[in-house]
Amino acid sequence: MQKLNNPEKASPFFERAQDTMLAACLQGVMGEVYVDEQEKSASAIAVVGDFARLGGIPSKTLLREFVAMRGPAYLILVGSDQGWNRLIEEVFGNKARAFTRYALKKNEHSFNEAVLQSTVEALKEGYVLKPIDEHLYHQCLSQAWSKDLVSLFPSYELYAEHGLGFCALKDGSVVSGASSYYSYPGGIEIEVDTHPEQRRQGLAAACSAKLILTCLQKGLFPSWDAHTKQSLQLALRLGYHFDHEYAAYELLTM
Asked: Chain centroid to CA 243: how far?
């Protein structure tokens, strides 16, 4: 297994897949791409954070070596076809939990800015929305539930340059947030997290609406890919339109 210095070389392995994660990887913005052989590769794995796309001819060797390199870290695998899915199940058995993710359409004209603004203004009394500055960046990193809001940006300087996000605060502490999990040319992929004790109060909706409005003002597309049905329902409420379901696998502790 080798890491590609020029990730764009792996583009032919992902011709049928259209998502922002591949745009980030293949254009060298964020993430990495690994192949089975540098010169005559037939398979590739593109990874950003804990999300990996598998392309080309299914390769047991590449899959095993990639997961071994990652160690026990949480990982989501998405095969480009049923061949990869069968291989994931064969190699990892009951350590790979199959589940369904939900892709949303990438259409900036689907949003109603008045509805989004009213969602922001519906924030409950006692909470305040603030953009993620250096102080909030470090506060998000310091807590397990909120670290994914900023963790793919190794420094605040990189986050300030390439990221964008908003947090809901109560008594000065972050209790919810919507931020760029990663960036890609022309947009960001949205990550939304709320403290377990603060859920079902409209905080995620308010943070997300503010982030979407800001993206539209900046000419960025706020891409959303739903991990759960709850995330899907929130996205639909905010103006996204459902595109399709797809299979994914969570690797349990190896």
From this structure: 17
Q: Both tokens of residue 180?
A: 């760029």
- Go through the domains of the chain in sequence order and give each one's CATH number: 2-102 (3.40.630.110), 112-238 (3.40.630.30)
> 121 Cβ partners below 8 Å, 6+ apart?
none
Helix ranges (H only) for the chain are: 20-26, 60-70, 82-92, 113-121, 134-141, 156-162, 203-218, 229-238
Phi, psi of 146 (to 5 degrees): -110, -5
- Is pTM beyond 0.90? Reply is yes
Tokens for 132?
Answer: 């993620």
| Model pLDDT for residues 168-201, shown as the tens digit of each residue | 999 999 999 999 999 999 999 999 999 999 999 9
**What Cα–Cα distance (Å) separates residue 104 from each residue in 69, 118, 131, 221?**
31, 22, 25, 12
